[in-house]
Amino acid sequence: MDRAAEAEPTLEERFEDLVATHRDRALRLAWRLVGGDDAAAEDVTQDALVSAYRGLSRFRGDARLDTWFYRIVVRQAYSHLRWRAVRERFGQVDADEAPDHSTVEGDPMLRARIAEALDGLPRNQRDAFVLVHMEGFTVREAAEIMGKASGTVKSHLHRALGKLRDRLGDLLDDGFHREDRGRDQQPQKPQQPQKQQPWDPSERDPKEISNGR
Amino acid sequence: MADKDQEQSVLSAEERDFVGRLNAGFQPPPLTAARRAALDARVRDRISEPRWSGWTAWMNGNGASTPALVAVSVAAAALLWVGLPAEQSGPSFAPPLGPTLSASRNPSSGAEGSRTVEFVEADGREAWTQRLLFGDPTNDTLEETESGLALPPEYAAIDRLFFEG
Predict the structure, then answer these.
(1) Is the Cβ pair A75, B134 closer than 8 Å?
(2) How far apart are CA A78 and CA A93, in angstroms?
(3) Where are the alpha helices (DSSP H) in chain A?
(4) Which residues of A touch B39 (CB under 8 A)?
(5) Which of A6, A4, A1, A23 is nearest to A198 (CA)?
(6) B125-151 burial string, b = 16+ CB within 10 Å, else e?
(7) Under 8 Å between Cβ of B8 and A150
(8) Which CA distances in Å does B98 have to A33, A144, B70, B83, B102?
């Protein structure tokens, strides 16, 4: 048996592993970065995965693969936000393209407020806050993803937290919804990465299956 | 995890509570098996098709045949070549191409009649579009602004001129 071939996974295998391990987390990260827009988050994740596949052969291992991939996700999310900002400013975004916060479980008003507050942060502060405090990356990982020094990321985190508390400080007061307070007695911890559902290249689109094709 | 622990330890109990409530109130919907399969299928379709197939499919969908695409591409390349300002003494009959804001010839390089061009500012529609969509990777000044999301400079100029004037 060829040991070299055994030790070196193919591009397809590496991509399959990347998708299976990081797809779900990338989607969550993208969802939070684009302000809770399901469709946009899927577009961003899809673009990031395609970009990763095309760049995987050039990936030399200078950084960790997951860090490299999440950096792509963050950049794709920012590109999406810039493009959306341009379209909104020049009136090319329809009302039905705005994120619909009522389709997800929980308090849609609260979700919209948090999305608006995050959207109001400068990019680096929002990225740092979402990566560390919401997605559970370490400061060092976030720094690698953002291409900044750890100290800079900590500074962004401090500023972001201050601004968010200014805008959403009532979450800690009685203004916080009673049902949410009862449900979340313990602060929710950021989600940690986990082995996700495998990516099966032979898997068929459920729409095709339902159409009987 | 040391960094993470250190970061978390910086937060006061109240701040941790606040962050926890933000997380609780801003949870994405669970990724169902159907959505996951659909996402995988779209990714699979995109990576299995040639990179420019989307553009050509769009052109074909608008009535352009493959020979027409080739002809248009060749014509565009020829027009671009003719349109570049040449190092020559005579007048150029080529029309300006695209929203090139300022481009200057490099007088010190190239022999007479060569087409050595040094672009100073805007370098054509493609680069302009790239900067618009993806920003300037070598310049983070836009990202450091205190506004939520800075417009690209071209749009910011239009914005100031027409919307804030």
Answers:
(1) yes
(2) 17
(3) 3-7, 11-33, 38-56, 65-89, 108-119, 123-129, 139-146, 150-168, 178-183, 206-210
(4) 23, 27, 42, 45-46
(5) A23
(6) eeebeebbeebeeeeeebeeeeebbbb
(7) no
(8) 34, 38, 21, 10, 11
Q: Cα A109 to the chain's mean position, in Å?
A: 21
8-state DSSP, A130: I
Of A28, A32, A30, the residue nearest A115 (C-alpha): A32
What is the number of helices (H) and of strands (E) in chain B? 7, 2
State how far the Cα of A171 lies from the Cα of B17, in Å rounded to an integer.
10
Which tens digits make up the pLDDT trace of A43-65? 999 999 999 999 888 887 777 88
* β partners of residue B103: B119
Closest residue to B42, CB basis, from A27, A46, A124? A46
Q: Which tokens go with B142? A: 């836009």
Count Cβ atoms within 10 A of the Cβ of residue A196 and give its class: 0-12 exposed, 13-18 middle, 19 or more buried.
middle
Burial class (CB in 10 A: 0-12, 13-18, 19+), B2: exposed
Cβ–Cβ below 8 Å for A168 and B22:
yes
A10, A193 contact by CB (below 8 A) = no
On whether the CB atoms of residues A84 and A75 are closer than 8 A, the answer is no
CA distance to A143, A147, A148, per residue, from A155 (Å) = 11, 14, 11
Kindly report whether the global pTM for this prediction surpasses the value 0.80.
Answer: no
Tens digits of per-residue pLDDT, B28-87?
998 899 999 999 999 999 988 776 555 555 555 555 566 666 777 777 777 777 666 554
- Amino acid A56 reads L
Q: Do B3 and A138 touch (CB under 8 A)?
A: yes
B125 at the A interface (CB within 8 A)?
Answer: no
Reduce the DSSP state of residue B104 to 3 states and report it: strand
A148 touches chain B (CB under 8 A): no
Q: Is B146 in the A-facing interface, judged by CB distances under 8 Å?
A: yes
| ipTM of the shown complex | 0.74
Residue B152 to residue A85: CA distance in whole angstroms: 10
Q: State the DSSP code for B120.
A: -
